[in-house]
Amino acid sequence: MIHPSHQPAARQATRAVGVLLVLLLVVMGLPSLPGMKGVAHYLPLHMALETLAIVVAALTFGVVWSARHEQLPRNALVLGCAFLGVGLLDFSHMLSYSGMPDFITPSSPEKAIHFWLAARLLSALALLAVAWLPWSTSASRTYVVTLVALVVVLVAALHSLFFFAPHLVPETFVQGQGLTAFKIGFEYALMALYLAAAALLLWHMGRPRSFNASGLFAAACVMGLSEFFFTRYTGVTDIYNMTGHFYKVLAYAFLYRAVFVETVQQPYNLLRASQRQLQATLDALPDPLLEIDDEGRYVDVRAGHVGSLAAPINQLLGKNLQEVLPAESARITLAALDEARQQGFSRGSVVALQVPDGNRWFELSVARKAPQPGQDPTFVVISRDITQRLESDEAMRKLSLAVSQNPLPIVITDLRGSIEFVNDAFTRTSEYTADEVLGKNPRMLQSGKTPSATYRGMWTQLKQGKPWQGELTNRSKSGREFTESVLIYPVRNAEGVVTNYLAHKEDITERKLAAERIQQLSHHDQLTGLPNRVMLGKHFDYVISQTNALAVLWIDLDRFKDVNDSLGHNAGDLLLLEISQRLRTSLQDNATLSRHSGDDFVALLPHTSQDEAAKLCTRLLDVLAQPVQVAGQEIFLTASIGIAISPDDGQQLDALLKNAETAMYRVKEDGRNSYRFFTPEMQAHTSRALALGNALKQALPRGELHLVYQPQVSLLDGRVVGAEALLRWNHPQWGVVSPAEFIPLAEANGLIVPIGEWVLHTALRQLRAWLDGGLPMMTMAVNLSAVQFGQAGLTDMVSQLLRQTGVPPEALELELTEAVAMKTPEVAAQKMQELSQRGIRLSIDDFGTGYSSLSYLKRFNINQLKIDQSFVRDIGTDTDDQAIATAIVQMAHSLGMTTIAEGVETAEQLDFLRARGCDQVQGYHYSRPLLPEHFEAFVRANLQARKQKPTPSAQANIRAHAVETAT
């Protein structure tokens, strides 16, 4: 693709090459005629063509040599100097031609061909070098002289070779036979060089013009075409030889034109273009351009707008400055000319003139103009109208003063946030000077207390071209934190493009503190700092919008009036502060504690169920029951707590508060120091729980508790290997109370510790009695609650009971639930280690129902895992239960433990567990839990049956007997 800068010359070059190519084809297609073998009078024609070629080559060198001081490109000098050598070789070729007088040595076709080929090779290499080397590099004088000397030395060397040692050169022509193969091959090699140069020049024509590549391209192509003729002639005077010389002359002409255009014509064209551009520039200048001589007279005046001149142009030319300008303006202008005379230029002088456009101010720029020989120097003066600029500067000065003296901080940044301007108020607020912040980012003021989402929202607005308003908490240079109300908006230029951001700031720290104080006074209790009823309502509205599962506790201190009456209100206030702190510490973070009046507190508990509320109330009562030191006295307080649950007891705060308060009064009526639910159903449950809790305290002394024992059977041989002791409660009024109901009460009120010790002691005494009665050694399994396991002296207590009852430690198996073991794994592992070292067996009850960590399980000193009955119940049909049971058995065996499955009720369940390798089972399939005497009978029946190797029907009879005697 030809670059537009080459297209006019490229079209001419390609047309010329195309015409000459067609002519070559025509000549080659002519029939062989007698006249083609030898052209009449060929010698004079040859001399004329060669002379013309030599002249063109000399002109090429002459043009380049004459311009060698103009910083010509190195390529032009290479081409010109090379064609000096080409012209000299062509001259020797002409003198050596057959028919010419002897030139040093006898003339002959072969001698002429030697000089011909040398000239052609030099021209081809020169064109190739010009096309290859960078064109823009200028050459020094030393380079030019060296290049000419090299060309002269090369030409002289070639003359010496051809004159005195022609035998060293291969034959090129044989008289009567024509050209040799060397000659023809050499010509084709020259054609290849010319075509390579043409290809490189064609590549240059596709790039912006840096030299006349089109002319050189035409010269290279025509050179190559001419060489084709010299591969065809058989006689030195035939038509092919003549046509080849003609093509060579044309190629030289193209070459000369290319060099001439580049070294002579192109600079003149550029000069004329530069003059036209300068004239256009002068015509486009909006400011008057004056030329004034050394005496202050107007020599030339150019002005696109005459309204900015002090007088018409024809009245200025030849006049002196003092004749045209006011005295002060003339004096200032002459002073500027004098400064330019001494320094070469003058800038910044301002004069005031009355011109047709009105009173205007002009800024003078003066430059001294170098004079022509024999002439006085002159000065070029540009008079720029700066009236509007001065007016704008004045307006900007006023605006700058207004912005700088604004009592509120103002910051201007670029689009990247770099500060470009701050006013005095900003420096006072931030305590940074302007020099310390200019170029910096305002983030240097960040305190870290403004949420990152605020900054993200700010930049989202600003990048959309929208203003942003908000509050930022910043830090001054001294570390003082302050809150600012900030308005930032984009600043746009005349085209509507955002160029800057402008921020108006206001320190609102004191205002916010005052608002917070007012908020605190109006929404919080002054004594405790807790939210008052108004704030409680806001909290309730927020919580109820998130969830409707909400518990409201109304907490009233019992007999608080007695404290005020006896110790005074100051002591009462101190007591209320301590109580509020205890309550706040005991509640979760998402709970809201409020003081209503006097000794009444209300707690909002989001996401709280009835059971969770009951447990929390129990904990609060325990916390409040701790003594308080007030006025040097130890005071014991209790509280009554009423509970209302949303949405069952109401969905509005007033309704919930009313119901919770009603429940609280019910507690008061029932004796204080407790809690009650408002819902009738929940109230009934709470009443029963309270009654059971109170009755449980007397159950042990009154003998209402007893133990039953469920057999544990080995699947290996069917023998009874152990018993699990299970606690039962028969109340005179309520009858049998479920362990699931009374054991949590015992754990909640602390009774589980003495009851648990009684269970352990009773079970060990019973085992000792069975052993003394002749029963075989077996294991007694006793469950430990979390409260028992957490007792500091558990290991010593168990060891003491073993010694008292005389039961071997290995006959006792303590059962722990997963939750107990994993509550504090490190502490549990230490305690299990202590029990194991005493020889006591340990098992994990209900294994698989919790979230045990296997990494801890392998560290625990566990002897047995109990498969929970929830996995056994559907083990015959549920593939998941089957997989879990199988995995527990395999895992236990891999860790060196045994397994026992509870809740086995069917033969199908038993067969599956036996097939999977389970070690022991217990459940209704063998026996319900039995009273001691019935358990003893069951074991003896089992021993008797095993001795007789009973049939399955006999085993069924044993189980039936167990069912009959079961409790």
From TrEMBL:
Residues 548-680 form the GGDEF domain. Residues 274-344, 395-441 form the PAS domain. Residues 689-943 form the EAL domain. The keyword Membrane applies. InterPro entries: Biofilm_reg_signaling (IPR052155), EAL_dom (IPR001633), EAL_sf (IPR035919), GGDEF_dom (IPR000160), MASE3 (IPR033425), Nucleotide_cyclase (IPR029787), PAC (IPR001610), PAS (IPR000014). Residues 466-520 form the PAC domain. The chain crosses the membrane at residues 12-33, 45-65, 77-95, 115-135, 142-165, 185-203, 215-233. Keywords: Membrane, Transmembrane, Transmembrane helix. Coiled coil: none annotated. The keyword Signal does not apply. It holds the Pfam family GGDEF. This is GGDEF domain-containing protein.
